[in-house]
Design a protein that fits this description.
By secondary structure, the protein is of the alpha/beta class. Helices cover about 20% and strands about 25% of the residues. The chain has a 5-stranded parallel β-sheet with strand order 10-17-11-12-13, covered by helices on one side. Strands 5-6-7 form a 3-stranded antiparallel β-sheet, with no helix packed on it.
């Protein structure tokens, strides 16, 4: 969205293609690190971004999935799941990341019936219930706190040894209510027929299994970059992130990357927004240098 705004401010002819407005922002409840707001509702922040974008005359195709990107001479061609083909002289890839799956029995079968990836969306359904949260980072602890707010009984399961969440988050969560911490454990199976009824975990220290009675499980074990559409076009690192330089340039001339889909460190909203602005300005400079505008 930031890239689109900066492209519009440079009077470039551009279009914004996306599955939604806001991406990962809409999967959390509150944002405490956006400058100017000590605390702001995440949906309100995403809505304000959307309103800003729509204040410009930018063609927007929301609900659009990108199925492929090719380049022929100086022109990029973007194919979509709607069948529409877009052409441009430059392309900014700011597709973010998606949730990593556990890939254990029961996960896919019970998706939406106790298996969840978005506490903002689903936490209210677990008021007073027993819930397992998988992960040890900031996202897992934030999810646990969202569940504690609705008086859920939470078991936090961490695969590696040692919790990775910020100390401040750990302190707030541990004071928040009924929480059981299982460090160095692995989810083996998610049980249930019509809905989740339990989760089997394995202690990685002694290989002993334990069944935890649960009404739901929230999975927060990291994210994967949405780079599949350019994997045969640009250079990626071993994690699938698009490799960019300090000007957001990729290995393909005219193609720029911004935000969490790239190798830029520290995946934060404010950093991604800055990278979007930088990518648009770099694309503008490229078009000027090439006399394409």
């Amino acid at each position: 969205m930031t890239a689109a705004v900066y492209a519009a401010r440079k009077m470039l002819s551009c279009a914004l293609l996306s599955k939604d407005f806001g991406g990962q922002i809409r999967e959390t409840s509150e944002v405490e690190n956006w400058l100017g707001f000590q605390n702001i509702n995440a949906k309100d922040l995403a809505d304000s971004f959307e309103e800003h974008v729509k204040s410009f005359s930018i063609p927007v195709a929301i609900g659009t999935g990108i199925t492929g990107v090719t380049k022929q001479e100086d022109t990029f061609r973007v194919s979509t799941d709607t069948g529409t083909l877009y052409s441009s002289r430059t392309l900014i890839l700011a597709t973010g990341k998606r949730h990593r799956l556990l890939n254990v029995p029961g996960e896919k079968e019970l998706l939406g019936r106790g298996v969840a990836y978005c506490a903002t969306c689903d936490a209210p359904f677990y008021k007073g219930k027993k819930v397992v949260v998988v992960g040890g980072g900031n996202s897992a602890f934030t999810t646990a706190m969202d569940l504690l707010k609705v008086d859920a009984e939470v078991t936090l399961v961490n695969f590696i040894r040692g919790w990775q969440a910020d100390e401040a988050l750990q302190g707030r969560m541990k004071q928040g209510g009924k929480v059981t911490l299982l460090d160095y454990h692995q989810v083996s199976t998610i049980e249930g027929a019509e809905r989740v009824t339990g989760v089997v975990v394995t202690d990685r220290e002694n290989e002993q299994e334990e069944r935890i009675e649960a009404n739901g499980i929230f999975i927060e074990v990291g994210l994967l970059p949405n780079s599949d559409m350019v994997k045969d076009l640009v250079d990626l690192n071993d994690q699938g992130e698009v490799i960019v330089d300090c000007l957001c340039r990729t290995s393909v001339e005219g193609l720029y990357g911004a935000g969490d889909v790239t190798t830029v460190p520290h995946k934060q909203i404010i950093i991604a927004a800055g990278e979007g602005a930088k990518a648009a300005l770099s694309a503008y400079s490229y078009l000027i240098d090439k006399s394409l505008i």
